[in-house]
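If your schedule permits, I should be very grateful for your opinion on a structural question. What I wish to show you is a protein chain and, alongside it, a tokenised description of its three-dimensional fold. Would you kindly read the sequence against the tokens and tell me how you understand this chain to fold? Here, with my thanks, is the record as I have it:

===
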Amino acid sequence: MTVAMASVGALILLTSALFVYWLSTVASHQKRLDMLDVRVHVNGIRGKSTVTRLIAGVLREGGYVTVAKTTGSAARVIGRHGEETPIARRGAATINEQIETVATHVDKDVEALVIECMAVRPLYQKHSQDFMVRSDITVITNVREDHQEEMGETLEEIADSLAVTIPVNGVLITAEERPYLRERLRQRAKERGSRLIYADPQAVDDEDMRGFDYLQFKDNVATGLAFAQLLNIPRATALRGMWKSVPDIGVVRLRTYEILGKRILWVPMFAANDRESVVVTFETLKAQFPPGATVIGILNNRADRGRRAELFAQMVPTDLAPYLDHVVTFGAYEEQVRRTIIELGYPAGQVHLLGVTVQPSLDQILAAITDLVPGQDGVLVGMVNIHTDQAELLIGHFEHLQGVNRRSELEESRDPTRMPPGTQRLQRAATRRPVQRPPDG
């Protein structure tokens, strides 16, 4: 009995200690959030990482000491000077990462926090907003079809799922272009005592886009400008901050490489993995493809993304056939994907398997792709997912071809010309040499 009682007592003490630690952690987290002047939660289906970076750039250039955190293709914390740090995870990502980010990077000098929503399930999204971020301003970039298992089958259901991150008595900014979905978001905002601001892409002109050295979309820039106007940050300042922001690792940068005697334009479009985003991107890019070039699409399918693999298999004949001359499959589900594509009417001779069923080397991949290009110019478009063995071989090869001129996103983030004005002044002051005055007399 004595041993049993001692064990129960130890368990009670341990539970009490854990409860006290939890209370202390929660209180410290809330205190750090309360110190901030601006808290921004970025949600939506597409463009979250990009918009997080753009808004953080607007804030930094507007004079706010800002910390941002993206989930995206590669999770990053973007520090107060714009410098980026990869997030090292021990195991699978969880939304508790948001608390760790605040604890590690938000101190008394930080004035603004921009954080990308990690959660997919509505319950976790709501918890993230109400307890972890408590934003004054929430961005819902758009409403599109993805994660239907967790968020709902219809666009209206997906809009309602995203709406649980709208603040209480705050502001919602969205670039969702469909009026009926925007009105639904407006009603959800009204229920929480918040107002909706529409970020209209028509307010962005072509000149505003010339400062980006990668594929950018006007609705993302419109969101940054709407945010800047809300905080009374001048438009020119906001644009300058967005131009300086380092893009996410998944953005599309068009580069042409010489491969086995062919000129291949590489379009890494892996981050656009829903139907609407892909079609819009193709429409935007097609004017930049060389005349007469053979266009090859890579369907890069991860084993844990079966539903997405099926979606893209259906998209090839129904949506992408006008753009693609050939389709190459990487990764998993190759036979199923090929069968679906052909059954829906895409020519069987234009579908080529180069994934797990073949396990090709890099040389075999390059030879197979260039063999599909009868002329001098080809366009290679990567889609669906970023991580498979074959895609990583190809991505690594193209990075190698960039040679000494290649800079990683981490290196770009430390470029002094991208840093906010306050940081540049401090760096100049630290490196300034004292004036040598002649001796008296």
